[in-house]
Amino acid sequence: MSFHNLVMYIITAITLFVLALLVIVIVKFNASANPVPTKTTHHAGLEIAWTLLPVLILLVIAVPSFRLLFYQLNLPPADLTVKATGKQWFWTYSYPDNGPFEFDSIMVPEADRKPDQPRLLAVDNPLVVPVNKVVRVQTTASDVIHAFAVPSFGIIADSIPGRLNEVWFKATKEGVYYGQCRELCGKDHAFMPIEVRVVSEQAFGTWVEEAKKKYAGDSRPASNALAAVK
Predict the structure, then answer these.
(1) Element of type H or E holding 213
(2) From the DSSP assignment, how many helices (H) and strands (E) are in the chain?
(3) Contact call for residues 4 and 65 (beta carbons, < 8 A)
(4) Gap between the Cα atoms of 162 and 213, Å rounded
(5) How does DSSP classify residue 206?
(6) Using CA atoms, how far apart are residues 63 and 56, in angstroms rounded to an integer?
(7) Within 13 A of 144's CA, how many CA atoms are on the CB side?
(8) From the CA atom positions of the chain, what is the Rg in Å?
C-alpha cells in the first residue's frame, strides 16, 4: 500500500505539472499574447533537466519496486504445504506434509448441484486447509499451462508442465472460498474451478485422517469422473 501511495503521489504531481505547462502555453504563447515567437531552438539546461528528472523519478520507483519483488518471492515459513496439479480439466491435490494421498477435484455437474452450491464453482472434493495457518501452494501441470488463482486470498500462480511454482496465503476466517483456472487451457477451461474450505485446526486434523483412508487407495480414473460432468 505504501508503494501504491508513493506512485500515486508521483503520478499526481506529474499530471498537475503537465497541466500547468499546458495552461501556461495556452495563455502566454498564443498568437495574440505573443505575436512574435522566439527563435530559440535549443536550451542546454532544459534538455538536461527533462533527461535527468525522468531518470531520477524512475530510480525512486525502482528501489522499492525491486524490494517488493524480492519479498514477493520470499515465502514465509509454511505451516502446511499443498501441491496443486492442473490437468485438462480438473485439479489434483496432494498434501506432502500429511501422508501419501492425493485426490482429484472435479466440478459438480449441474444435475447434482445442491441449492447452496454456486454454479460452475462447486467441486466434489475441495481443497481443505486450517484457519490462521500459512499455506504454501506448490503448483504444476501435467499437460498444458494452467493457473491456480483464488481472488479472496490475493493469489495467482502459473501451473506449468515440468516446473514447480510457489505461492502462499493465510486465511484468517473459516468458510468456503472459490477460484478458477486463469490460463486459457483448452475447450473446458471454464469448467475447472477451485474450491477451498478453511476449517479449524481440529477439524483439519480429523479431515486428514479421513482423507488418508478415503484417498490412499482411490484409483478412480479422473477421466471417467470428468466425463460424468459433461
Answers:
(1) helix 201-215
(2) 4, 10
(3) no
(4) 30
(5) H
(6) 11
(7) 12
(8) 27
> Whose CA is closest to 219, among 87, 88, 104, 93?
104
What strands lie across the sheet with 193-199, from one edge to the other? 127-130, 193-199, 175-180
Report the distance separating Cα 19 and Cα 50, nearest Å: 16
Phi, psi dihedral angles at 51 (to 5 degrees): -95, -45
Residue 81, helix vs strand vs coil: strand
Q: Give the Cα-Cα-Cα angle 73, 74, 77 (nearest 5 degrees).
A: 130
Place of cell 502555453: 25
Contacts of range 11-18, beta carbons closer than 8 Å, 24 or more positions apart = 14/57
Its sign, for the CA torsion 224, 226, 229, 230, is: negative
pTM of the model as a whole: 0.71
Sheet strands side by side (includes 165-170) = 102-105, 90-94, 80-87, 134-141, 165-170
Q: Are strands 155-159 and 146-150 parallel, antiparallel or unpaired?
A: antiparallel
How many Å from the N-terminal Cα to the C-terminal Cα in the chain? 44
Q: Cβ(150)–Cβ(196) under 8 Å?
A: yes
By C-alpha distance, which of 154, 91, 78 is closest to 124? 91
pLDDT tens for 164-198 read 999 999 999 999 999 999 999 999 999 999 999 99
Q: Write the pLDDT tens digit of every residue in 65-112.
A: 998 888 877 889 999 999 999 999 999 999 999 888 999 999 999 989
